[in-house]
Write a structure and sequence with these properties.
Blueprint (H helix, E strand, L loop, with lengths): L9 E9 L6 H17 L2 E10 L12 H11 L6 E3 L12 H19 L1 E3 L2 E6 L2 E5 L2 E3 L4 E8 H7 L7 H11 L1 E4 L6 H7 L1 H5 L4 E4 L9 H9 L10 H10 L10 H15 L2 E5 L2 E5 L21 H6 L4 H20 L7
Parallel strand pairs: 1-2, 1-8, 2-3, 8-9, 9-10
Antiparallel strand pairs: 4-7, 5-6, 11-12
Helix pairs in contact: 2-9
């Protein structure tokens, strides 16, 4: 009696190509949406994801260096354990067509896939369901790895534009690899598939994944916000935001918020002054001084020694108050210069 065979789901590696200038939370969200959608079919099991930034030879205005873009992708992926950065495309000395990127990774994965197979020869097993059987050249293998191109609706729409893609490249991408397309609001990818002969021919290999939560984040809008000194918090991963400010990318303002200015003022106070005095209801630091003077020996004037008297009454100490006043005016001017409207 033959044992029933069950077909294992095809293992899928998702690859997203793009400038990632910079990488946004939406780029990461695309991987999660695609994995959920494919896994629910029961035919596929997404096992890995790859982000492949373009090289510096991709002619696009405002494109940051590949080294910066790759580093930002690496930082963004710290919160994802199944998607990784691949720098092969970014290291090329020319712009690399999408098909060649897919073929490169397909070749690498075939090597990994073949090494994962375990061959067992001349394995005998007695009395299986009352029958003696000998297993010759038995090979336990993992299901085949398959690459799919992960993209947004804009890339799918570009396939339908005459002359933008080589017909032979497009046909290989659609037939050999396939697409996983994340839709966006006001976009109808099925319309483009219907209207284009090539897309229509391979529509069974195109997976449309709707994004039910409205999310219109784009790298273009992020760069514009950074140029204007607007906050991009919750649109990018925090390490990516910090990296952008640290390296002053996209003409970003150096000061992210008044928090930076407050830290600077706090640092100035703590290192310039030590003893606390109250001036107009504000806690400031008075300069440290040493004195051998003592309070009056007159019984009528004998009282507890108070260091603040020296600050208020000693002519030698009065210049300190002037310095504090000047410092406060400078701080006030600095605060006015860095209002929330001008800081990111």
């Amino acid at each position: 009696m033959a044992l029933p065979l069950t077909q294992s789901p095809t293992r899928v590696v998702l690859i997203a190509c793009g400038s990632f200038n910079p990488v946004t939370n939406m780029h990461l969200r695309m991987f999660e949406l695609a994995r959920d959608s494919l896994n629910k079919t029961g035919r596929y099991q997404v096992v890995s994801g790859i982000m492949s930034p373009v090289s510096d030879f991709y002619s696009k205005k405002g494109l940051e260096k590949a080294s910066h873009r790759c580093e930002m992708v690496q930082l963004a992926l710290e919160s994802m354990d199944w998607v990784r950065l691949d720098t092969w495309e970014s290291e090329q000395d020319k712009w690399t067509e999408t098909l060649h990127v897919l073929e490169h990774h397909s070749s690498k994965l075939r090597t990994v896939d073949s090494n994962a197979n375990i061959s067992l020869k001349n394995v005998s097993k007695d009395e299986v369901d009352g029958t003696r059987m000998t297993l010759q050249n038995l090979c336990f293998t993992q299901p085949t790895l398959q690459i799919k191109l992960l993209c947004g609706a804009d890339l799918l729409e570009s396939f339908a534009k005459p002359g933008l893609w080589k017909d032979e490249d497009l046909e290989k991408i659609l037939s050999k690899y396939g697409l996983v397309c994340i839709t966006r609001e006001n976009s109808d990818p099925r319309k483009f598939i219907y209207e284009n002969d090539m897309l229509n021919k391979y529509q069974e290999n195109i997976f449309i994944v709707p994004e039910w939560i409205r999310n219109d984040i784009s790298s273009t809008k992020i760069r514009r916000a950074l140029r204007r000194g607007e906050s991009v918090k919750f649109l990018l991963q925090e390490p990516v935001i910090d990296y952008i400010h640290q390296h002053q990318l996209y003409n970003v303002n150096t000061f992210k918020s008044n928090k930076n200015l407050n830290e600077i003022v706090k640092f100035m106070y703590s290192h310039t002054f030590k003893n606390v005095v109250e001036v107009k209801g504000m806690s400031l630091q008075s300069s440290t001084f040493s004195s051998t003077e003592s309070s009056s020996h007159s019984p009528k004037r004998q009282r507890e020694f108070d260091e603040t008297d020296y600050i208020q009454n000693s002519p030698k100490r009065r210049t300190c108050m002037g310095d504090i006043g000047g410092l406060m005016r400078k701080v006030k001017s600095a605060r006015m210069a860095f209002t929330p409207e001008t800081c990111v």
